[in-house]
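Marked as duplicate of an earlier ticket. Keeping the data here for the record.
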Amino acid sequence: MSLTKARRSAPTPKTRRRAAAPEQRREQLIKATIKCIARKGLSNITMADVTTTAKLSLGIVNLHFQSKDKLLVEVLRYIAEEYKRGWDAIVNDANLTPAQQIEALIAFDFSADIAHPAKLSVWFAFWGETSSRPTYREICNEADLQTTGSMRKLCRALGSSSKKRAELIATGYTALADGLWLDILVTPDEMDRGFARDIAMSYMASFFPDHFTSP
């Protein structure tokens, strides 16, 4: 290939911006929808709410998602995948011991990004619809199974006496985290992220006193 042809075929900054724009708009719409759900709930939001918040046209929303139902499914996938990426980064970090990984996972679960009121509002809004929406249920169940499965393996690595006991501890942590998230959302004056993190660490310390100290 000649140098002239190579220059012509190479993407310019302008073409790169055009290629990136659809994905950027898609994420912009998803983030706007998260804000709308946090304010109004799932059933009350409209496409007009989303476009107004995103400062984009209704045609752009229809281009990317075709319908409100499809948009909501993608919002749930977006926050589930965001959570999974953070979780995976910790459990796949070979520089951390199992105890350090558990401590990092608890810190992640009660970080400002994950335990943010708006994000928690969205999670609970979708969880409330799982009984009638199979797609929501599938996505939420997958997230719970991944969390419990990873925590179970870490508990076994810390010396949990049996697979059943590790399952009990991991499932108990998932339920505890869900309850603490709800408390952070509903009673923020009584439960903040730091207190919730301390409770979760105390839970782990009760099972693994050689590895964790109760705050």
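See parent ticket for discussion. The mean pLDDT is 86.
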